[in-house]
Amino acid sequence: MSNQPRVFISDAMEGLSERAGRDLLSPLRARAECEIWSLARRPDREELEAALGAADGWLCMLTDPVDEALMAACPQLRVVSSFSVGIDHIDLAAATRRGILVGNTPGVLTETTADLAFALLLAAARRMGEAGAYLRAGAWAESQWEIDAFVGQDLHGATLGIVGLGPIGQAVARRAAGFGMEVLGWSRSGRAVPGVRAVAFDALLAESDFVSLHVALVAETRGLMDARALAAMKPGAVLVNTARGGIVDEEALVDALRSGQLGAVGLDVYAQEPLSADHPLLAFPNAVLMPHIGSASVRTRVRMADLAVENLVAGLEGRALPECANPAAREAAP
Ligand code: NAP
Fold first, then answer.
1. Are 139 and 285 within one domain?
2. What stretches of 98-166 show up as alpha helix (H) in DSSP?
3. Does any domain span residue 1?
4. Ligand 1 proximity of 315 Cβ (cutoff 6 Å)
5. Ligand 1 in contact with 96 (CB < 6 A)?
6. pTM, entire model
7. Which residue puts its alpha carbon closest to atom 20 of ligand 1?
8. What domain range includes position 74?
9. Active-site residues: which are they?
């Protein structure tokens, strides 16, 4: 029997490896016995437990719920490396208590995700989804150029409020400056960011024509954009969310779109993913909806894969993870 460590990898990454021109998992194959999930659907609970029962390491996706019960069922698990910067799918406190190191992929996806936030701001402001659908349906061919067709809002000269001034929030602020926007920002720690006027949360909501969300999803930010916060926004303002769905109360969001309190939304993330085919948001032409593609450029996804693999290899070899969300777990490790 091999004395190599065992790892479970939640995604075979075949398509991405092909695009990269190399096998992204080869450093793991060289050092561990790898069990690799290769079906198109995600593994369910039972399948995860079966795959992880004897595993020392796990390269997981943000769709994998890494909860305490699952960790308890995997006594050998020493390191979980997530292919994501967000770690709200992982019970970090439980992992730390159990001495399980958690790796993630900050930094490498900052600019790409900020690009998507800006694309959503532009698409929602200029009604690009509606206008594109009109053209594709053949409606333009049967009509003519009209003076007030798809008139939207300008970004230049407008005020953008950024909620959460971490790396992605700051990258959005840099883009907004180039677009001639006035930029307001709120963060719990009152970070000073060049070009961003720090304001209180309610002042940001009241003064911004566009609001873009960039806080991590934790207990304190869950439902941050609730009915009260949405009502405190400027009537007709645009809300963009590329952070996590749980930050917004989705029922209240639908109400705010229905009443016209929100002029438009641009969303990449949802309370439940994938978004169900009958979700009420789908009824709104002024909702620009993306299927969680914030980091989805080839270069960035390859960099995320490399970092996730490096984190897992380091953990298996007993070295410090290049990006570790809970270094304190070392003290609890058996
Ligand atoms: P991050 O390190 O994940 O966190 C961003 C901000 O969250 C920090 O600035 C922090 O505020 C704030 N925060 C943490 N706990 C908080 C609390 N209790 N109350 C209020 N604010 C709190 O930074 P990031 O790399 O910029 O990523 C932001 C989020 O974007 C991620 O957490 C992830 O969920 C999401 N994301 C989505 C995609 C996508 O594909 N759509 C891609 C990448 C990331 P302070 O600065 O004040 O400490």
1. yes
2. 110-125, 128-136
3. no
4. no
5. no
6. 0.95
7. 188
8. 6-108+297-332
9. 244, 273, 292
